[in-house]
Structure formats: structure tokens, C-alpha cells
Design a protein that fits this description.
The protein has eleven helices and eight strands. Strands 1-2-4-3-5-6-7-8 form an eight-stranded mixed β-sheet, sandwiched between helices. α5 packs across α6. The longest helix has 15 residues. By secondary structure, it is α/β, with parallel strands linked by helices. The protein has one domain: Alpha/Beta hydrolase fold, catalytic domain (Rossmann fold, 3-Layer(aba) Sandwich). 46% of the residues are buried. β3, α1 and β4 form a beta-alpha-beta unit.
């Protein structure tokens, strides 16, 4: 079954690896050259691979490095029996960010919660800024419960994942790209894919972390989360909110030009770091 490794990546993007604190090998993608400017670190959502960010690598790497991470169990990373919980994956994310930081973390969907957990548990030191992409961050209104999707995974996993992949895009996707995303998601064991959902953590946990983060923050959402975005800015006025009205859940793929310009402007507004990089 095809994994979709390096699918549609632009020239100059290379694959590497990072060893997580528990010894798990995590696959990474890199483009551009490291400098005094913070790098971008792109983290995909539930079951998705790093190459889902393929439209970002070229534009974002013009003046800084761009990294993308395959979280454990996803993409080309190892699929260990353990560690498929948000705390372990937050630790993985923080460790990798620390190894290449400072970074502007761009975290989509489930990865946004993993980023919030990483900052809450391990500190904000590797991060220069945070971009949360179309994720529920605990503000009102609460989204519909996720149990029907979990039930669908248990009943007919391949059909549920195919429906999920097709639904995240508002724009049409090539058949081979959709097939590669489906096949990649099916590489993860069913029990692990279900364990990724942090169902034991109350929504207020994410809300409180997001409101307290001192780092520059951009919250980019499709219409499904725009009310949460405005409520976050109401309680955290320094939050930059951008709504992608014509996009689906994968708004960075549906409107890549707008998304890339937004990230470039956000990064340049942070200024150039004066401290030397930790290498």
C-alpha cells in the first residue's frame, strides 16, 4: 500500500529524522536555510502526513528554514505500540522544536491542542510565535461530540477515513493525492488512531492555556470555528484572527496563497532575533 512519501513536494525539500525522547524515530521534512530568523515548524493534524503542507514549503522558505514533522504513527515516522496520547506527542513536539528552535509553530487541528499542551507542560522557550489552524480551542460554542466519528472508525474504518479526507477540502483534490492520504492514515493501528483523541481532558483546559499564552498568536479558521476565534480574541485581545470563508478544514490547501502571505507577514512582524541560534 502506497504511503504517499514525499508526495508533490517542491524541489529542495529534503527528508530527515529526529529521535524522540523515548527513542521513537520521527520523520521530518526541511526546506530553506536556517538563519537568525525563527524557522517555521508545520505540524499536521490527526492521521495526516507532513507532506500535506506541500503548498507551503516553497513560499515560506524564501527567507528562513521550514520544517514539517510527521508525528509518531503518522507519515513516515515509526509506529510504536505506545505513546499515542496527547502528553507524549506534546513532549515529542517540544523536543523537536527545541532541537531546531526558535520556531514559529504552525499547528493544524489536533496538533494545535498538542502545541498548547507542549507549552503548558514544558514551556514556551523554543517557540517565537504560535499559529493555530482550524482547531477547537475550548471556547464557546462547543463543536459536536466526536463519538459518532469514532463509532464510524470502529464500524468501517476505511470508509470513515475516506469520508474524513474528502470532507477536509473545499476545493477538489487529485485522486492520487486523496488516495495517498487515505492509505497513509490507514498505516496507523486503529487503537492508536482512536487514542489520539484527548477525550479525558475537559475543553476548559485548552481554553485556559490559549488565553494565558504570552507568545504572539495567530488563529486561522474556517467558518466552523469562527465564533470560537472571536471569543478567544474577546478574552485575549492580542490574538490575531483570520477567517477563511471559502475554505474547508484544510484551509492552507484550499487557499494556499492567502495562507502563505499571512504566515510571512506574521513572521516578519516578530522581528529578527538577536540571540544566537542553539545548534
Amino acid at each position: 500500500m502506497a504511503s504517499g512519501a514525499d508526495f508533490t513536494l517542491p524541489p529542495g525539500t529534503t527528508r530527515g529524522s529526529f529521535t524522540a525522547p523515548d527513542g521513537t524515530r520521527l520523520s521530518t521534512l526541511q526546506s530553506g536555510t536556517r538563519s537568525a530568523r525563527p524557522s517555521f515548524l508545520l505540524v499536521p493534524g490527526w492521521s495526516m502526513p507532513a507532506w500535506v503542507w506541500s503548498a507551503q514549503f516553497g513560499p515560506l522558505s524564501a527567507d528562513r528554514a521550514v520544517f514539517a514533522l510527521d508525528p509518531r504513527g503518522q507519515g513516515e515516522s515509526d509506529r510504536p505500540e505506545q505513546g499515542h496520547d496527547i502528553r507524549t506527542r506534546a513532549y515529542d513536539l517540544h523536543a523537536f522544536a527545541s532541537s531546531v528552535g526558535p520556531v514559529i509553530v504552525v499547528a493544524w487541528s489536533l496538533a494545535a491542542l498538542e502545541t498548547l499542551e507542549a507549552i503548558h507542560r514544558f514551556g514556551s522557550a523554543p517557540f517565537a510565535g504560535v499559529v493555530l489552524v482550524d482547531s477547537s480551542v475550548g471556547e464557546e460554542p462547543a463543536p459536536a461530540p466526536g463519538s459518532p466519528f469514532i463509532d464510524a472508525l470502529q464500524a468501517d474504518r476505511e470508509s470513515a477515513i475516506e469520508g474524513f479526507v474528502r470532507a477536509i477540502f473545499a476545493s477538489g483534490r487529485p485522486h492520487d493525492q486523496v488516495r495517498a492520504l487515505i492509505d497513509g492514515a490507514l498505516r496507523m493501528p486503529l487503537s492508536a488512531s482512536i487514542a489520539l483523541f484527548p477525550r479525558d481532558i475537559p475543553r476548559e483546559h485548552w481554553r485556559d492555556i490559549a488565553r494565558m499564552i504570552e507568545l504572539p498568536m495567530l488563529y486561522a479558521v474556517s467558518p466552523q470555528f469562527q465564533e470560537q476565534a472571536w471569543n478567544l480574541r474577546l478574552h485575549r485581545p492580542r490574538t490575531q484572527v483570520e477567517v477563511f470563508h471559502r475554505s474547508g478544514h484544510a484551509l492552507f490547501a484550499d487557499e494556499p496563497d492567502r495562507f502563505n502571505r499571512l504566515l510571512v507577514h506574521f513572521a516578519r512582524a516578530l522581528g529578527t532575533l538577536q540571540a544566537p541560534l542553539q545548534r
